[in-house]
Amino acid sequence: MDVAEKKCTACGGNSFVQATDFINLRPLDKKLAIGSEKVYTICSDCGEVASIKVKNPEKLLK
To answer: Which strands, in side-by-side order, build the sheet including 49-54?
Structure first.
């Protein structure tokens, strides 16, 4: 579903922003792996996190 078509399950809003943080997701058994960024889709009306997506999931397999 496109961000423009989403509807917030918490407040019913339809305005979203995408953001990331500076902590990469890494496999549990590979502590020194670079890993991948997470992309959050957040309702800009109430702040509810609508989804979290791994930007490069293939980096978790290496």
So the answer is: 16-19, 38-43, 49-54
Q: Which two tokens stand for residue 52?
A: 């979290």
Return the DSSP state at 36.
B
Task: Say if CB 14 and CB 48 are below 8 A apart.
Answer: no
* Separation between Cα atoms, residue 57 and residue 62, nearest integer Å: 10
Does residue 4 sit in helix, strand or coil? helix
Q: 29-39: per-residue pLDDT in tens?
A: 988 889 999 99
How far apart CA 26 and CA 17 sit, in angstroms, is: 24
Q: d(Cα 33, Cα 27) in Å, to the nearest integer?
A: 7
* Residue 1: per-residue pLDDT: 46
Domain ranges for the chain: 3-60
